[in-house]
Amino acid sequence: MRRKSGRARIERGSGEGQPATIPCIIEWDDLSPKEQLALKRLNRGHDPQLDPVTVERLLALGLAVQRPQGIGISRAGRELVINVLLGPDA
Hints:
Number of domains: 1
Radius of gyration: 13 Å
Number of helices: 3
Order of helices and strands: EEHHEEH
Shape: globular
Oligomer: single chain
Structural class: alpha+beta
Distance between the termini: 20 Å
Helix content: 25-40%
Strand order of the largest sheet: 1-2
């Protein structure tokens, strides 16, 4: 399912294996330019030079995830970046 350009739907659950119940819409413009750049970099792969504060915010928003090899982009984060890159302004 495609979303409007520049939006990602993030669903948050209880964190204990329960299905997510509350959808949270994050728009590209809700992110700071630093967060937008970090998300684009994560979309290309692991970036060990990302600012820890920015990484924590992306993790809190559900746009990034902790992986064994480091921080990576989440599905919602990838969807947000792709929608922006392929949007009408691209």
